[in-house]
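Structure ticket #2291
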Amino acid sequence: MTIERIPMTREGYEKLKADLDRMQNSEMIEVAKRIAAARELGDLSENAEYHAAREDQGMLQARIDALKDKLSRAYFVDRNNLPVDSVAFGARVRVKDLDLGEEETFELVGAGEEDYNDNKILITSPIAQGLLNKKCGDVVEIKVPMGTVRFEIVQISFS
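Resolution: structure written out below.
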C-alpha cells in the first residue's frame, strides 16, 4: 500500500466510515453465516456453496482492508483556507472542450464523494490534476487514457 495522503471533506470521510461499518458489521456477518450453513452440508472438498462463500469472504475482506487503508491516510481539507480565484479542492469548474466545442462542469472532490454520473471527480484524477491551480481563461492540455484533451476554464465556483 502507498503512504500518500488522501484529501477529503469530513462528509466524505464519514460516508466511507459508514461503508466500512456496514461491511464489517453486516456484510461480513452474513458471509460468515453462509459459510457456517454451507459447512453443515457435508464434504467441504466438493461443496460449491462453501467455496463460493469463502471466496466472497476473501473479496469482502480485501475491500475492508483497502477502505481502512484509505481512511488511515485521509486528511481533512478546510475549504475556507483555499484560494477562490483558482481551481482547488472542492471547486466546481466549468470548462469548454476546445476540440469538441462543448462545455462541461466538473466538481473536484475527495475519496468517498466521487460520482462520475454527476461529474464529481476525484482530486487525484488526471483531469482534476490538470485543472488544479489554474485560473479563469487558462487553457490546459491534459493527458487522459483516451489521448489529450484541451480545456479552457470558463468559470470557477465553490458551493
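Closing remark: The two ends are 33 Å apart (CA to CA).
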